[in-house]
Design brief:
mainly alpha, 4 helices, 84% helix, flat
Length: 93
C-alpha cells in the first residue's frame, strides 16, 4: 500500500468534505436523533464509502479511455470555474 498516496487522498477528501452538504445532513440527523448517534454515524459512513467506491470504479474505467493528466486538467478547471462562480455570487449578494 502506498502510504504517501493514502495520506494525500485522505487529506484532500477530508478537507473537501468539511462543511459540505453531506456533513450538514449528518449534523442535522444527529441533532434530531440524539439516541441514534451510532446509527447516523454508521449510515453516513457507509454512504460515503459507497459514493467513493463508485468514484474509484468510474475513475478506473474512464482512465482506460482518457489520459489521467487530461482528467486532472478538466477537474482542476472545473474547480476553478465553480470557485469563481461562488465568488461572483457572493459579491452580487
Amino acid at each position: 500500500m502506498d502510504m504517501k498516496l493514502m495520506g494525500a487522498v485522505f487529506t484532500t477528501v477530508f478537507l473537501a468534505e468539511l462543511g459540505d452538504k453531506t456533513q450538514l445532513a449528518a449534523f442535522l440527523f444527529a441533532a434530531k436523533q440524539p439516541a441514534g448517534l451510532l446509527s447516523v454515524f454508521v449510515a453516513a459512513s457507509l454512504a460515503l464509502v459507497c459514493a467513493t467506491a463508485l468514484a474509484v470504479a468510474g475513475g478506473a474505467i474512464v482512465s482506460d479511455f482518457v489520459d489521467p493528466k487530461v482528467l486532472s486538467y478538466v477537474a482542476g478547471s472545473g474547480f476553478i470555474v465553480i470557485g469563481l462562480w461562488v465568488i461572483l455570487q457572493a459579491a452580487a449578494a
